[in-house]
C-alpha cells in the first residue's frame, strides 16, 4: 500500500511538472519574433508520415519519407489524409509551408504542443487544434497530447506527438469501404477525426468513473492516507480534462458556424452531433468533479470522526482513572494503612475502586458516551 501511494504521488507530481513545463516552454519564447519555429523541447524519436488516399472506388495507404512526397496529393481529386506522428521539426514544418501553403503562424502553433483547443478559418484551409487523451492502465493515469488538423480542399493534415490507436480504427473504417466516409469529402474526414477523439473522452471518463466508485466504497469502509492521494490524483485528472473539453465546445461551435466552402452544409449536422457529445462529456467531468469534492469532504469528516472517537476513548479512560488516582494518592500517604488496622481494609479498598469504575461505566453508557451492547 505504501508503494502504491508513492507511485500515485510520483505520477501526480510528474503530471503537474509537465503542466508547469508547458507554461515554461511558452514563457521561454517571450520576446522571440512571430513565426519562430523551434523543435519541441524534450522531443525524441523519429517522425512517421502515413498517407491514406481514397475515393468511392479506390483506397491506397502508404508511408512517405518526407512531406515533399505528399505535396502532389493536394492537387488530386481524391481525398487524402496525411498523418504526421512524432516530433514536428522546423525542417518538416518548413516543408509543410512550401507544399501546402500553410501560414507560418499556424506552423508555430503546430510546433508548440501546449496549445489551447482552437480553430482558425483561412481562405484555403481550416486549422483546428484539439487535445487527445488516452488511459494508461499500468500507471492508472490519463495521458494527453496535442492533435493539430489542417483541412484543405481535398486533403486533411494531422500532426500528433505520437501514435494514436484511435486513428488506426478510423483507417480501418475507411479501408472497409464505409459508405459515408468513402463518398464524402475531406470535411467529413475532419469531422470523423474529431469524433474519434471525443469518443476517447468517454472511454477515459468510464475508467475514471470506475475509480470513483471504488474510492467511494473505500472512503466509507477503510479510508487510509493512500485514499487521500487517490482523491488528489483524480481531482488533478479531472482538472486537465476540463481544461481541454471546455474550449473544445467553443471550437466545434465555431466550426459549425464557419462560413467557408471547405465545410459543406451536409457536414454541419455531424459537427452538431460532436458538439452534443462534447457538452455531454463536459457535464460528466463537472459531475465527477463534484463527486470527488464530496468524497474529499467525506474523507475529512471520516478522519475527524475517527480522531474524535480516539479522543473520546482516551478521555473516558482518563476520567475513570482520575478518582482512582486520587484514592491511590491518599492511600499512599504517610499514615496507618487500612490493611494494618483491619484485615478487611485491603479488600475494601479494591471493592471501593471496583464500585467507582462500574458506576462510572454505567453512567457513561446511559449517557451514550460509550457503545451500547448489541446483544
Please characterize this protein's 3D structure:
With 375 residues, the chain is an alpha+beta fold. It folds into 2 domains: 41-301, Beta Polymerase, domain 2 (2-Layer Sandwich), CATH 3.30.460.20; 336-375. Helices cover 59% and strands 14% of the residues. It has 10 helices and 7 strands. It has helices spanning 2-28, 90-100, 104-111, 165-175, 179-183, 186-221, 225-257, 268-331, 338-341, 345-367, and strands spanning 48-54, 59-64, 79-85, 118-121, 126-136, 141-151, 155-160. Strands 2-1-3-7-6-5-4 form a 7-stranded mixed β-sheet, with helices on both faces. Strand 5 and strand 6 (141-151) form a beta hairpin. The protein is rod-shaped. It starts with a helix and ends in an 8-residue tail after the last helix. The model is unreliable at 1-7 (pLDDT under 50).
Amino acid at each position: 500500500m505504501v508503494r502504491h501511494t508513492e507511485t500515485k504521488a510520483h505520477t501526480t507530481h510528474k503530471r503537474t511538472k509537465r503542466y508547469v513545463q508547458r507554461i515554461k516552454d511558452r514563457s521561454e519564447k517571450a520576446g522571440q519574433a512571430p513565426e519562430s519555429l523551434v523543435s519541441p523541447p524534450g522531443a525524441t524519436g523519429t517522425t512517421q508520415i502515413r498517407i491514406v488516399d481514397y475515393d468511392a472506388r479506390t483506397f491506397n495507404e502508404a508511408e512517405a519519407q518526407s512531406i515533399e512526397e505528399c505535396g502532389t496529393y493536394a492537387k488530386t481529386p481524391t481525398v487524402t489524409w496525411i498523418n504526421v506522428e512524432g516530433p514536428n521539426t522546423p525542417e518538416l514544418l518548413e516543408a509543410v509551408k512550401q507544399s501546402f501553403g500553410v501560414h507560418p503562424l499556424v506552423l508555430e502553433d503546430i510546433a508548440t504542443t501546449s496549445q489551447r483547443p482552437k480553430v482558425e478559418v483561412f481562405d484555403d484551409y481550416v486549422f483546428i487544434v484539439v487535445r487527445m487523451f488516452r488511459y494508461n492502465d499500468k500507471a492508472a493515469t490519463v495521458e494527453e497530447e496535442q492533435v493539430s488538423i489542417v483541412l484543405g480542399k481535398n486533403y486533411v493534415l494531422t500532426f500528433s506527438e505520437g501514435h494514436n490507436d484511435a486513428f488506426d480504427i478510423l483507417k480501418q473504417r475507411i479501408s472497409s469501404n464505409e459508405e459515408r466516409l468513402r463518398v464524402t469529402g475531406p470535411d467529413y474526414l475532419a469531422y470523423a477525426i474529431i469524433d474519434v477523439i471525443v469518443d476517447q473522452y468517454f472511454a477515459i471518463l468510464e475508467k475514471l468513473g470506475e475509480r470513483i466508485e471504488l474510492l467511494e466504497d473505500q472512503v466509507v469502509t477503510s479510508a487510509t492516507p493512500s485514499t487521500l492521494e487517490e482523491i488528489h490524483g483524480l481531482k488533478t485528472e479531472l482538472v486537465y480534462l476540463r481544461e481541454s473539453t471546455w474550449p473544445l465546445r467553443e471550437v466545434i461551435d465555431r466550426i459549425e458556424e464557419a462560413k467557408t466552402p471547405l465545410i459543406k452544409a451536409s457536414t454541419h449536422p455531424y459537427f452538431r452531433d460532436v458538439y452534443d457529445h462534447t457538452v455531454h462529456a463536459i457535464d460528466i467531468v463537472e459531475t465527477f468533479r463534484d463527486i470527488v469534492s464530496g468524497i474529499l469532504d467525506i474523507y475529512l469528516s471520516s478522519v475527524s470522526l475517527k480522531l474524535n472517537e480516539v479522543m473520546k476513548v482516551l478521555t473516558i479512560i482518563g476520567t475513570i482513572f482520575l478518582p482512582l488516582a486520587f484514592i491511590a494518592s491518599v492511600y499512599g500517604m504517610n499514615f496507618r494503612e487500612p490493611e494494618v488496622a483491619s484485615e478487611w481494609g485491603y479488600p475494601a479498598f479494591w471493592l471501593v475502586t471496583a464500585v467507582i469504575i462500574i458506576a462510572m461505566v454505567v453512567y457513561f453508557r446511559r449517557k451514550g458516551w460509550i457503545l451500547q451492547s448489541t446483544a
